[in-house]
Structure formats: C-alpha cells, structure tokens
Design a protein that fits this description.
Number of strands: 5
Order of helices and strands: EHEHHHEHHHHEHEHHHHH
Largest sheet: 5 strands, parallel
Strand content: 5-15%
Helix content: 55-70%
Radius of gyration: 21 Å
CATH superfamily of the largest domain: HUPs
Shape: globular
Distance between the termini: 29 Å
Number of helices: 14
CATH class of the largest domain: Alpha Beta
Bound molecules: adenosine-5'-tetraphosphate
Length: 332
C-alpha cells in the first residue's frame, strides 16, 4: 500500500507535479494507493490563518487540488482519495504521537529551520509540530511506501523513528514501518529565479514557480526570465554547485521527457540557453495542456468532487479506526 499527499496551500506547481503527482496514475497499477489532500497542513502557512479570507476560499483551493488529482489520472474508484480534515483520527493520532516525539527532533528539521526563518517575528507552533501530523497521516494507514519529493525525506525518517519508538515501548507491531519512495528525477526542483532554494507553491514571487494552471504565454515568460549563467559560449551541463540555474532547467526537462540528463547534455552540446528554454517551454506545454483541459472539465462539477471526498473519507476512516483501536489496546 502506498501513501502520498499534497497540501492545498495554493495552486500546485510543476515541482509538486514532477515530485509526486505525475507518478500517481502509474502507482495505481502496482499498489493500493491512498491520496490525501492535506488541508490541516496547509494551515501552518501563517498568511492562511491570519489573512482575512474570501468566503469559501479554503474549499475552493481544496476542490482545485482534487480536480488536478483527477486530471493527472487518479481514479477515485481504484484509490482512496480523501480530505485530511474529514478524518478526525489524524488529529487524534497526532496528539498521541506528540507525546512520543522529542522537541529536539523537531527543531532539527530542515523545513522548520527554512520556513521559520522566512516567517520572521512570530512562528506558530504548527510549523514546528507539522512532521508529527505527517507521521500520523502515514502511520494511520499501515502503508509500506510513502512517495514524496526530496524535501520531505527527513520527515519520513522521523516518522519511522517515532513508529519504531512506539512499537519498541509496547513490544508490539502497532505501526507498520514505511519506506520512502523518491523518484530519481524531478524530486528536487528549484526556484526559477533562485535555484539555490526549492520551487514552492507559496513563494511570494510568482515568477519563481510554474503553476500547473499557468497559461502558455505566462510559462514562456517565466522560463525566459529563469536564471542561467553568464558562460560564453553557453555551456549546457549539469553541475549543481557551479551551474545551479542550468542544472535545474536540465532536471526539469529530464523529468518531463523521461530522458537521462547525460543524454540531454549531449543533445545540447554547442547549443544556446535559448535553445534549452525553448525546448522546455514546448515540453511543459505538451504536458500541461491536456491536464489543464481535463482539470476544467472536472472542476465544473463541484457536487461530483464533494462526493468523491465524502466516499474517500468513509473508506479512509474505516482503516484509520482500526489503527487507533490497535493503539489504544496497548495504551489503556
Ligand atoms: N521543489 C520540489 N521538487 C520536487 N518535489 C517537491 N515537492 C514539494 N516541493 C517540491 C513535493 O510535493 C509534494 C507535496 O508538497 P506539499 O504540498 O506537501 O508541501 P511542500 O513540500 O511544502 O511543497 P510546497 O510547494 O513548497 O508548498 P508550500 O509552499 O505550501 O510549502 C511533497 O511530496 C513534496 O515533497
């Protein structure tokens, strides 16, 4: 069984797509899959909590996310597709696992360090305890695989540690220890404007990220502005330290086309950065246009989307309750 999730903290980017979403359809053929919309996680973005919201803003983003899942080939009849906040066992297990996690372990998480630096003055404690809720999401379902981008690897290691700790204390296999699945290419996409940091859906500079619903004109403009370097003549080769911008573009293209970077380097020998960008724009267009078409069809039918979430939550709850029952059999 495989688990994967995205938080509806904004419109999904091609980094979310290449990191996880583009693999979900094929994963359905090999595993029983559970695909979650992690709306409780999205609350940790401070601007989400304190900003005055437009009416129905949250549900709108949730349905946008679900419609994208479907447009990428997720089949709600084959996989369990659900909204985290509709399965209360996530918050129940979250509290219990809080009591089995050391503060030091949370402070060591890279994502906390990066995000708390950006938040400056006051940091909400959800940002710190986020990995415990993530551990709860995973451990509730007895999954053996968790598909994530590279940025979440550390959180999965912590999930395993917490699970082993609880199993050890009670000398019982309460939780299944999951293994992390990170795909070879596309799992560490960087910002187009600052390739030393990751591409994020909540980056305040919208030109740093390609969003899955961006129109083609905008995509062309964003790639035109993407950072490369000043080597003359152009040198299209992969070297993360010395050529982070070009390496990021090569990684995006390699993941989209499913061609090894070494092959792309050969192809682009004696070619220009403009040639590289033109090919990326064309490839992104070919990938995103059919997804966008399907997205708009699914997005129109809100009742259908809400029904998928209702059915998904019913199935997820059934599994989650079994885990909680097993846990309380040793706690009480
Ligand atoms: N830059 C990335 N490259 C590859 N994979 C990525 N993922 C995120 N960023 C990249 C993977 O996408 C999945 C869903 O991510 P998330 O929504 O749970 O949250 P995140 O990792 O915090 O992603 P964002 O886009 O940066 O969101 P915000 O801006 O809201 O924090 C995860 O498996 C993640 O690894």
């Amino acid at each position: 069984m495989l688990f994967s999730a995205v938080q509806p903290s904004g419109l999904l980017t091609i980094a979310n797509y290449l990191g996880v979403l583009c693999h979900w359809k094929e994963m359905q053929d090999s595993y029983d899959c559970i695909y979650c919309i992690a709306d409780l996680h999205a609350m940790t973005a401070k601007k989400k909590i304190y900003k005055k919201k437009n009416k129905n803003e949250n549900i709108k983003t949730i349905l946008d996310t679900l419609a994208l899942y479907l447009a990428c080939g997720v089949d709600p009849n084959e996989s369990i597709v659900f909204l985290q906040s509709q399965v209360l066992e996530h918050t129940q297990l979250n509290w219990i696992l809080n009591c089995y996690t050391n503060l030091g372990e949370l402070f060591r998480m890279t994502q906390f360090k990066v995000k708390s630096k950006n938040e400056n003055a006051s940091i909400n404690s959800g940002l710190l305890t986020y990995p415990i809720l993530m551990a709860s999401d995973i451990l509730l379902y007895d999954v053996d695989k968790v598909l994530v981008g590279e940025d979440q690897k550390q959180h999965i290691e912590l999930t395993k540690k917490i699970a082993r700790r609880v199993n050890g204390i009670y000398s019982k296999e309460i939780f299944t220890i999951p293994s992390v699945v990170i795909t070879k290419s596309g799992s560490r996409i960087k910002s187009l404007l600052d390739p030393t940091k990751k591409m994020s859906k909540s980056d305040f500079n919208r030109n740093s990220s390609i969003f899955m619903l961006d129109n083609i004109e905008l995509i062309n403009k964003k790639f035109a502005k993407a950072v490369t370097d000043s080597e003359n003549p152009a040198n299209i080769s992969f070297n993360k330290q010395k050529k982070p911008g070009v390496s990021n573009l090569l990684e995006i293209l390699s993941a989209l086309k499913n061609i090894p970077i070494i092959e792309l380097e050969k192809f682009f020998l004696n070619k220009t950065y403009l040639d590289l960008k033109l090919m990326i724009c064309q490839t992104v267009k070919n990938k995103l246009l059919p997804i966008q078409e399907k997205y708009f069809l699914y997005r129109k039918d809100e009742e259908y989307l809400k029904d998928i979430l209702f059915r998904g939550a019913t199935k997820a709850k059934k599994r989650a309750k079994e885990t909680i029952k097993r846990l309380f059999s040793v706690l009480n």
